[in-house]
Amino acid sequence: MSKVVLYSSVSVxxxxxxxxxxxGPLFDWLTSGDVPLDDSGVLKVSQTSYDYVRPYWDEIGxxxxxxxxxxxxxxxxxxxxSGIDHVVVVTHRPAPDGWDPExxxxxxxxxxxxxxxxxxxxxxxxxEVAAGDVGGQxxxxxxxxxxxxxxxxxxxxxxxxxxxxxxxQHLLADPDVAIQGSRVLHLRYPVRH
Length: 193
Description:
The chain is of the alpha/beta class. Helices cover 20% and strands 28% of the residues. It has one domain (4-190): Dihydrofolate Reductase, subunit A (3-Layer(aba) Sandwich), CATH 3.40.430. The strands form three sheets. It has an eight-stranded mixed β-sheet with strand order 7-6-5-8-1-9-12-11, sandwiched between helices. A two-stranded antiparallel ribbon has the order 2-10. The protein starts with a strand and ends with a strand.
């Protein structure tokens, strides 16, 4: 079964966006380096960040996100981001009117069903879960194997929390990766089961 990873860039105080869903400077590290991270010509990071992030991105087969993220991004216009093969959207609503049924997006009701579908689609590749409400629900359901955070040196004070509305304590193992990039700290925590 594929590994399930909860992932996002995050402020030092634990937010993935401000109260208006704006990421502010959270993604600045993705454009402030001189090493191209992909073929877009837009994403350029430090060599240290590239050496950590690129191999991980290459492992991702499926991303799970909530309907809110899907709607904010306009469904990436039917093309999964960053070369990912499929996107599983957790939602209680059907696909938008006029949505291309051939697009590699799968609309699923509930996080357990979303993880099961994503693992089917991913094969031996990583299932990435976008942090936030859905990510917190997947963690609370005991379905996350690893938490990855790209911690950016900014304090938001309020906004959308990395773990969403998690109301119980969850112990993570000691970080097995802590890498300082330029304007970012990459952390990886195995989840205790």
